[in-house]
Design goal:
By secondary structure, the protein is of the alpha+beta class. The protein is 39% helix and 18% strand. Helix 4 (97-109) crosses helix 6 (141-168), helix 7 (179-195) packs across helix 15 and helix 9 crosses helix 12. 39% of the residues are buried.
Length: 680
């Protein structure tokens, strides 16, 4: 009897059905060994060692102390018994660094040594599984070294920086290599929004009475362009080099009156071809972005649903940086397109896509339907699982379809001294958009009639509208995943978990599907930026990821890397860090954010008050601040029983943590914080 060990029970059941008699397929339930979370669980020979608290012997080439996880004791015992009687043991953890590490830890616990057989596959289909077990390989120790280095670095950074936050901020705070860099990116966007000064300007639009009619906007008066949002600085002033006319309400009303007495003459017509190429097949971040935009699903929810689809054998492995498709997959996608839309919907050759991510690490295919590309209507799913499978299916097929082709028309008109402009796009060949359209429709994409230079038209429905320049937009979870990927922060397996951690720590809140940094998040980011700037530097974090790739490729020594990052950079910064509590002056108010005992508060003229949990920095107005300071502020009525409970509990929890309190975290509470704070 042969033994195949996978990570999840659902996957084990599926593969057992494929392999049948002669095989036993069992799940290890993820990692079976890890660094100790307390020196109390260490063997006696380590308990008095200088590195006992860390679980990593820095002076001995960063040697980690691995212990079998207590929650996996029964699983490990069962696997040992099965391995002892098996004629061969195959380790089939996921095909990435974490999976390679799990396979190695299993080989150690089960005493497999050189007999360990490592198998990987991209999809859970009978063909893929049988091909994998027929071609086992040895464990890739370069991948294991890269994962171990990442784990050691996370432990050193987390255990080194988190205690600084416990003392300076108070409460069970945490810092980490990916988490803190992501928080800083969000914090910088939040600060840009808080300091932004909106500028008002007016725009005037008309309807041109052609056949059919179309809408046009005033763009210039006497040859001088009208101000737009792009004409202003973040401080609300016109840019020094801008030669524009800024309309106020009075001038806008005068302009409307003027246009009502004019006819417009076409002065220019420009036609240009439009070619839209299909988006590539889905990577991990691409799936999270598309599912967030189209299905309104959060990153963690997408990961959970996608993992379920993978374990059911419906889509390929979900952690990938690559948009590459195998020749077989391209053939299946083209076949499905031809069946649904006919051969004319296909280009002459299949499309292959190269990754644009310079930090791409995972040598996998894109996320696509597994096996024979079963249509969504025939797959037997429902709800969010069906919606996500349909997204993967349609995106994969669309990637192999023809370009969308059309024409853009731009029309310039002159009405006396006023210049107007209109544009529109018409697709003449829908191409891939017949199945999957990844662009939002725009009001400006109107179908313009064919007009000629010199034609004269009357105007109607002239209207003036006040506009305001907008601060930098907030990130949705999907957009921020894209930002993290572009900045090189984290990996496909960590995007969703990072956002989840930031929200669980109350550093970030999700409101109307947009990410907001909380007062506590701003204060933590402010402290880290001042005291340990390397940890929150996106370029530094991206370089760390690049060096981990080199370790995985065998071109960089893990010890040399850790010496450079830890001894040469982070450890000295941590030693020199001050423990003073952070303060953040609010740029839009005469007030300062402070923190005591892990509770964010507001200080105005030397008087402090704790901030309620659900109040975000952008909510704070002079009226709200006055109500908070006078004690008359009332929380909005909670919408759910859970929210009601949190609101009821809040005064008791807040009573000792007001910003004006001088009380610091006690030794007992600090110890409790150290035990509960995360380190990733």
């Amino acid at each position: 009897m042969k033994l195949l060990i996978v990570e999840s029970p659902a996957k084990a059941r599926k593969i057992q059905n494929y392999l049948g008699a002669g095989w036993q397929v069992r799940a290890c339930l993820g990692h079976v060994r890890d660094l100790p979370n307390s020196k109390d669980v260490l063997p006696d020979r380590y308990k008095n060692a200088a590195f006992a608290k860390l679980g990593v012997d820095v002076e001995n080439n960063y040697a980690p102390i691995y212990l079998a996880r207590k929650d996996k004791a029964q699983t490990i015992q069962d696997l040992k018994a099965l391995a002892k009687s098996a004629e061969a043991v195959y380790l089939a953890a996921d095909p990435d660094r974490e999976g390679e590490s799990i396979a190695w830890h299993l080989s150690v616990l089960l005493g497999l040594g050189k007999d360990a057989k490592r198998v990987t596959y991209q999809e859970i289909t009978e063909r893929a599984i049988r091909q994998a077990v027929a071609n086992p390989r040895t464990i890739d120790f370069h991948l294991v070294a890269a994962q171990e280095t990442r784990r050691v670095l996370d432990r050193l950074a987390g255990y080194g920086v988190s205690p600084l936050l416990w003392d300076a901020v108070g409460g069970p705070q945490s810092a980490g290599r990916v988490q803190s860099a992501a928080l800083m990116l969000l914090s910088q966007r939040e600060q840009s929004r808080l300091s932004f000064v909106a500028s008002a300007f007016w725009r005037v639009g008309v309807t041109v009475k052609s056949q059919p009619t179309f809408k046009a906007q005033v763009t210039a008066i006497r040859g001088v362009a009208l101000a737009t949002a792009a004409s202003f600085t973040p401080q609300g002033q016109l840019k020094p080099d801008s030669n524009v006319t800024q309309l106020d309400q009075e001038k806008a009303v005068q302009l409307v009156s003027y246009l009502n007495r004019q006819q417009a003459v076409v002065s220019a017509v420009t036609l240009s071809p439009v070619v839209r190429r299909p988006p590539p097949p889905l990577t991990t971040s691409g799936l999270q972005q598309a599912a967030n935009a189209k299905l309104k699903l959060g990153a963690a929810q997408v990961t959970k649903l996608a993992q379920s689809l993978y374990e059911q054998g419906l889509i390929t492995y979900i952690r990938t940086d690559s948009p590459h498709l195998s020749d077989e997959a391209i053939g299946l996608a083209r076949e499905a397109v031809a069946t649904r839309f006919g051969p004319s919907a296909l280009p002459q050759e299949g499309r292959q896509y190269a990754t644009r991510n310079q930090n791409a690490q995972e040598a996998h295919e894109a996320i696509r339907p597994a096996g024979k590309f079963v249509a969504p209507e025939q797959i037997g799913l429902s709800g969010d699982e069906l919606a996500l499978y349909r997204l993967v299916y349609e995106r994969t097929l669309a990637s192999q379809m023809r370009d969308a082709v059309g024409e853009k028309t731009a029309v310039t008109l002159q009405a006396g001294v006023v210049t107007l402009h209109a544009s529109g796009v018409v697709l003449t060949e829908k191409g891939f958009t017949a199945l999957y359209d990844d662009q939002d429709s725009s009001d400006e994409e109107q179908a313009l009639p064919k007009v000629r230079v010199g034609e004269r038209f009357s105007l109607k429905d002239t209207r003036a509208e006040e506009k305001k320049s907008s601060p930098p937009s907030r990130f949705t979870e999907g957009k921020f995943v894209q930002v993290m990927e572009k900045a090189g922060i984290g990996r496909p397996s960590t995007y969703g978990a990072t956002l989840e951690t930031l929200q669980r720590r109350n550093y970030v809140a999700l409101r109307n599907r947009q990410l907001h940094v909380t007062p506590l998040g701003l204060l933590v980011a402010s402290y880290l930026m001042k005291q340990v700037p390397q940890l929150v530097n996106a370029e530094f974090t991206a370089q760390m990821e690049g060096d981990l790739d080199k370790i995985a490729n065998g071109t960089l020594s893990r010890v040399a890397y850790l010496d450079s990052i830890w001894k040469g950079t982070l450890a000295p910064a941590i030693r020199e860090a001050q423990l003073s509590a952070p303060r953040y002056p609010l740029p839009h108010l005469d007030a300062v954010l402070e923190v005591r005992g892990g509770v964010a508060g507001l200080v105005v003229s030397g008087k402090g008050v704790a901030l309620p949990d659900n109040v975000l920095p952008e909510d704070l107005t002079m009226q709200m601040v006055a109500a908070l300071m006078s004690g008359t502020f009332k929380l909005p009525k909670p919408k759910t029983p859970d929210a009601a409970k949190r609101t009821a509990d809040q005064p008791a929890r807040r009573a000792h943590g007001a910003a004006s309190s001088k009380k610091r975290t006690t030794a007992a509470s600090a110890t409790k914080c150290r035990k509960s704070a995360g380190v990733k």
